Amino acid sequence: MKKTIYIIRHGETDLNKLGIVQGRGMDSELNEKGREQAEAFYRAYKHIPFDKVYTSTLRRTHQTVEKFIENNIPWTQYPGLDELGWGIHEGQESTEQIRSDFHKITQDWKSGELHHKFERGESPLDVKERQLIVLEKLIEENNDKNILICMHGRAMRLFLCLLTNQPLTEMDTFPHSNTTLYKVEYDGKEFHILDFNNTNHLDYPFDQF
């Protein structure tokens, strides 16, 4: 049975705005702009008859799709959708040293060193293991035709690699910004991207809906 999966990144938080590292260990809330982004996404996609809503366990994803949840669409929180844990760098403001550390580790990942991680953090391989649980739910035989998933930037990149059977070293081929949409179709065997990094819902004033 075909399924269509709408995968979005959460709306903006103050930590996003300030450039502060925000991973699995930072349970921040949406700021005013983030709430506006969430509202814009809702108005653009409220006509879709979603059968399920999946989010991470973190509040910024819950708040982004809150209006869909309030419509009594069945909602499940999955730890597998949480952001990658950045360990000792979480909650820290960007400095030259932190930027250098991040550049080095992302280059390591691109070169295949996918087990590398910051102290007390997670590697892409760690995240993949917990995302496999969500993948199993997506491919279950059931009547779900439309599923909405709200998650996080780096985790989204890894999840899209997993769905499209690309190596995790290619994660950076999936750009993202707050409330970016990737629309994916599952044909019963494989996943195919139908809509790539779409933020059109942010381009229209509310009175256009």
TrEMBL record:
PROSITE patterns according to UniProt: PG_MUTASE (PS00175)
Sample GO molecular function, one term: fructose-2,6-bisphosphate 2-phosphatase activity
A biological-process GO annotation: regulation of pentose-phosphate shunt
Entry keyword Acetylation: no
Record SMART domains: PGAM
Keyword Hydrolase set for record: yes
Xref: InterPro entries: His_Pase_superF_clade-1, His_PPase_superfam, PG/BPGM_mutase_AS, Phosphoglycerate_Mutase
Positions with a binding annotation for substrate: R9, H10, G11, E12, T13, D14, L15, N16, R60
Record protein name field: Probable phosphoglycerate mutase
Keyword annotations: Hydrolase
Domain of life: Bacteria
GO cellular component: cytosol
Organism this protein belongs to: Daejeonella rubra
